[in-house]
Amino acid sequence: MMAERMVISEENFYELLSFMVTSAHLSIEEPELYGSFRLIDGACRLIEFALESGQLRDEDFVREFKEYADARKHSMMTDEPGYVRFLEEATGKLAKELKRQATEQ
């Protein structure tokens, strides 16, 4: 079971909340892939806040995942098939990590 603790500050919480709510509103008018871009960008922001807190037990995966996502998320603008592959791979990477964590407990 994961520890029950806050890994982001209240300020960062409201920043991420604002990003998510405005992204939901903007996604009504934006092209289809922009919504997925905003979600992956939000995930990267959440990781950044969690890393800043210094409260994660194991930062290696999230740090590597953020670098991976940051390096590929903008491909949405130039390589739609590559961007879709990136999202599929990112989902797999996260699932594999969650499974690893579950087996360690």
Main attributes?
73% helix; 0% strand; 105 residues; globular; 4 helices; mainly alpha
Can you offer a commentary on this structure?
- With 105 residues, this protein is mostly helical.
- The chain has one domain (11-20, 30-104).
- The chain contains four helices and no strands.
- It has helices at 10-26, 32-53, 60-72, 80-104.
- Helix 2 (32-53) runs antiparallel to helix 3 and helix 3 runs antiparallel to helix 4 (80-104).
- The longest helix has 25 residues, at 80-104.
- The mean pLDDT is 91.
List the helices and strands and how they pair.
Layout: H1 10-26, H2 32-53, H3 60-72, H4 80-104
Gyration radius (Cα, Å) is 15 Å
The general outline is globular
Helix content: over 70%
Tally of DSSP helical segments: 4
Q: Topology as H/E string?
A: HHHH
Strand coverage percent: under 5%
The number of domains is: 1
Mean residue pLDDT: 91
End-to-end Cα distance: 7 Å
Structural class: mainly alpha
- Contiguous low-pLDDT stretches (5 residues minimum) are none
User: Count the strands?
Assistant: 0
Biggest sheet statistics? none
The multimeric state of the shown protein is: single chain
